[in-house]
Design goal:
It contains 3 helices and no strands. The protein is mostly helical. It has 2 domains: 5-35, no CATH class; 46-80, no CATH class. Helix 2 runs antiparallel to helix 3. It is elongated and about 55 Å long.
């Protein structure tokens, strides 16, 4: 049973031993989607996410602002090592 296909997100197929477990997972995902708390599974790393975030967050900003954003995230990146 594909639990993601009908939610408007890219399909991820998972296999469950029991239909009851698959339905419970589908229910959980639908509930989280409705609440706006659902986070789609991803293989992106935190560092890659930060790079993407900085690209978007600093678009059309001064170089000094970009540098401040990068500096603010240095402790996060250091903790990832």
């Amino acid at each position: 049973m594909s639990v993601y296909g009908d939610l408007g997100v890219s399909a991820v197929t998972r296999t469950y031993d029991r239909l009851k477990d698959a339905r419970a997972e589908l229910s959980r995902i639908r509930h989280q989607t409705t609440d706006g708390t659902y986070v789609q599974p991803s293989k992106i790393t935190v560092s890659q996410y930060l790079d993407e975030y900085l690209t978007g967050a600093t678009r059309n900003r001064r170089e000094s602002t970009k540098a401040n954003y990068c500096d603010a995230l240095k402790p996060v990146r250091a903790a990832l090592v």
